[in-house]
Amino acid sequence: MLEVKNIETLYGLIMALRGVSLQLEEHKITAILGSNGAGKSTLIKTIMGMLDDQPDKGTIELDGKRIDRKDTEDIVRMGLAFVPEGREVFNELTVLENLQMGAYTRSSAEAKKDIEWIFTLFPRLKERIKQLAGTLSGGEQQMVAIARALMMHPRILFLDEPSLGLSPLLTKEIFATIKQINQEAGTTILLVEQNANMALSVCHRGYVMENGRFVLDGTPEALMADKDVQEFYLGVK
Ligand code: ATP
């Protein structure tokens, strides 16, 4: 599966990742917790090959083969899909067209089968199949963004702050669906979240990132029992 070894990522002179190592467990959900600016998004962007000439140091391997410094396009074709923060959808396209845009690497028969499954995950999108994505609510746009990534039939799904800007109820709904995707399709998921409570409720393993480094990792139960995690991330007094 995916193995990140000791990577460093720079923005000019600023070191955003300072020696990060991570091994994703296949068919499991891994969560990365951390406050604003900890480097969580930078880690996903580095893995996806979205930052020029990064990582500066270290390696990223998929099934034992180096993928660092490859083009994003190639990385997507290897089965890695990314849902960026801020639910980017094609506003001027309908829900269905947005989903079809996600299927460019697939045959139409395969895509058709997936779309039926995706509509069981997001029945609300099925009801709005012809609606322009720009006119959907924030929560529905997040569903479109996740659904579009699923149309690629990814081996690994990267989700950057899926709960950002959503109501508590919708956040709960999105997280239940994330769990369902993992259970029904076996998709390996890496989730980056500031909402530690939600992330720890669905993940199999969690990592805590501070200032470009992992400072703690463990099972969700172990992290929830950790005094620092409780105080700084779970809001327990
Ligand atoms: P957030 O949840 O706010 O997105 P994050 O943990 O994902 O936080 P990153 O976005 O990865 O954090 O940012 C890590 C550090 O790198 C921050 O100090 C940020 O200011 C810096 N950074 C991010 N993007 C750039 C950029 N394009 N140019 C320069 N510095 C950047």
Description of the molecule:
It holds the Pfam family ABC_tran. GO terms for molecular function: ATP binding; ATP hydrolysis activity; branched-chain amino acid transmembrane transporter activity. This is ABC transporter related protein. The protein is α/β, with parallel strands linked by helices and 237 residues long. It has a single domain, classed as Rossmann fold (3-Layer(aba) Sandwich), CATH 3.40.50.300. The strands form 2 sheets. A 6-stranded mixed β-sheet has the order 6-7-8-3-9-10, sandwiched between helices. A 4-stranded antiparallel β-sheet has the order 2-1-4-5, covered by helices on one side. The relative contact order is 0.19. Bound molecules: adenosine-5'-triphosphate (ATP). Adenosine-5'-triphosphate binds next to strand 2 and helix 1.
User: Which small-molecule species are bound to the chains here?
Assistant: adenosine-5'-triphosphate
Question: Architecture, according to CATH?
Answer: 3-Layer(aba) Sandwich
Strand content: 25-35%
Q: Compute the number of helices.
A: 10
Number of domains: 1
